[in-house]
Amino acid sequence: MKAIILVGGEGTRLRPLTYSTVKAMVPVLNKPFIEYVIRHLVNHNVKEVILALGYKPDAITNHFADVHQLDARLVYNVEARPLGTAGAVKNAERYIDETFFVLNGDVFTDINLGDMLQFHKNKGAKVTIALTPVEDPSRFGVVETDSRKRVIRFIEKPKPGQSTSNMINAGIYIIESDILRRIPAGRYIMFEHDIFPALLAEGEPVFGYETNAYWIDMGTPEQYLQLNRDLMFGKSTQVQFREQDICIDEQSSVHPEAKLTAPILVGRDCIISHGVWLKGPVVIGAGCRIHDGAIISNSILWQDVTIGAQASLEDCIVASNNHIEDKAHIAGAAINKARATKQS
Ligand code: GDD
Ligand code: MG
């Protein structure tokens, strides 16, 4: 089977982190996010992955030019301008000849795609939408179903009290290829606002596949931090990290009088100095320098970050090439001093 991953936007809600990288490439346990999504598809027998790319496609295509071990054929389909979720899929129509998956490119999930496909076939659905429960549905698209799991209503980003359900669109669809004919070409069209409601209005069989598998949309700094933390605490079957693990790359050095509290992951070429305290969960990317007496807790540093002596960071994300001053005390911040650059 084939899958289309929607890798459209800059990731506005992840700013300022996305000033220097695109959302799909943000590091999760020191690997680009999109790699996990592709590996999950490959593990469920998807052999061809079409990346529907909008914003700064080179950041992704250049990365995969160097990565060959993914066991999937990657196709890049670049949009000259944003076409919306359904428009981006329509734009990839020439690669599609059978039932296919569509995935939002910012969702990490352990969903069993094989089981979802079986459900789709058993129901005779034209479209199956994966549904996941969330505490606060207001940031998502709520999907209401009847007792047979047929979709009866969509409420995108509901106001409090507007919806009776906490089952939301998980951003994973199985679609029959003839649905593509109904999407107008070359226009900005969304599945969520335009195509799915139209299919319901016409009585087409659209079903909701409920899953309790691990699921998170990592499109905000809080959710991104949460994803890294969850993976370190072993909440996903895709990552073999355990909460008692302290993994330091062999090419990094840790002063004997630094204190390490698990879970911790440190990439290559890092120097952790005297008196530093890493209070996990902490992820440190390649080439970071942590100076004497700094304390870092529940935080993520990308690459080539320096943390000044006696500084403290708590619940922070620091983008690549940033420097934190000596004795700075920072909590709950996403830090990136790089300026926004315009799309080339
Ligand atoms: N190629 C392409 N072109 N991709 C796009 C475009 C576009 O014009 N617009 C959005 N995307 C991609 C985004 O990059 C992201 O991977 C995915 O489509 C969803 O867009 P978001 O901007 O992250 O949407 P959201 O999180 O507010 O809401 C969507 O996802 C929720 C689940 O996480 C909706 O589908 C909700 O209904 C859903 O609950
Ligand atoms: Mg999202």
Draw up the topology in text:
Layout: E1 2-7, E2 27-28, E3 31-32, H1 33-43, E4 48-53, H2 58-65, E5 73-78, H3 84-90, E6 100-104, E7 107-109, H4 113-123, E8 127-133, E9 141-145, E10 151-156, E11 167-175, H5 191-201, E12 206-210, E13 215-217, H6 221-232, E14 246-248, E15 253-254, E16 259-261, E17 264-266, E18 271-272, E19 277-284, E20 289-290, E21 295-301, E22 306-307, E23 312-314, E24 317-318, E25 323-324, E26 329-331, E27 334-335
Parallel strand pairs: 1-4, 1-6, 4-5, 8-12, 14-17, 15-18, 16-19, 17-19, 18-20, 19-21, 20-22, 21-23, 21-24, 22-25, 23-26, 24-27
Antiparallel strand pairs: 2-3, 6-11, 7-13, 8-11, 9-10
Bound molecules: guanosine-5'-diphosphate-alpha-D-mannose and magnesium ion.
Residues 104, 106, 217, 219 line the site of magnesium ion.
